[in-house]
Design goal:
Helix content is 68%, strand content 4%. It is built from five helices and two strands, in the order αβαααβα.
Length: 196
């Protein structure tokens, strides 16, 4: 009986080991990319950042000026704590309150506009970048590309050798330049027909 069980066990082990003797499948090729860095690193991303800075830079300066006015009023109130009349103090308090409300409203509106513009740029560039990544992954035999730019990324460690962020930025910029509309060809000039 022990001999039969031993033979049966040997047969099962041989059967279980049989697939291992066939040619092994290629291991999955995996890459990581920092999508945020890729988007910002492209020429389009840098242009978008410059556009946003040009649009919102003056608004930041206006907010800073409003904040400086509020700070001046607070200093005035503090310095005149013993010398100002109650009516003057109340006027300064009202002025500070009004300017603070206006400042907060302006900051909220500017922040909402900025986030909307940033989102639009990220979506536009991200869609184009996705096409480049898909092509790159297929052409280079990658089975999986993982975005490691999020704070909640499950990736704890990834070797620099599998980070394709730089390659994707370069490929994106090369393709963007190739896809950019060139100057239209000059219209052919029509020569008047000459009589023969």
């Amino acid at each position: 009986m022990k001999k039969v069980i031993g033979t049966l066990a040997a047969a099962l082990l041989a059967a279980a080991g049989a697939p291992a003797q066939t040619p092994a499948a290629q291991p999955a090729k995996i890459a990581v990319i920092n999508m945020q860095a890729a988007i910002v690193g492209t020429r389009d991303g840098q242009k978008a950042a410059a556009d946003l800075d040009g649009k919102y830079g003056p608004k930041r300066k206006a907010v800073d000026a409003q904040q400086a006015e509020i700070n001046q009023l607070r200093e005035q109130l503090q310095k005149g704590q013993n010398t100002l009349s109650d009516a003057a103090k109340n006027e300064i308090y009202k002025n500070i309150d009004q300017k603070t409300k206006t400042l907060n409203r302006d900051m909220e509106d500017d922040q909402a506009d900025l986030e909307q513009d940033q989102s639009r740029y990220i979506q536009e560039i991200g869609q184009k970048l996705g096409v480049v990544i898909n092509k790159y992954a297929r052409d280079n035999g990658y089975s999986l590309v993982i975005d490691v730019s999020g704070q909640q990324s499950p990736v704890i460690f990834a070797s620099n050798t599998i980070d394709i962020t730089k390659q994707i930025i370069d490929l994106y910029d090369t393709n963007a330049a190739a896809m950019a509309p060139s100057t239209p060809p000059a219209a052919p000039q029509i020569q008047p027909a000459t009589a023969k």
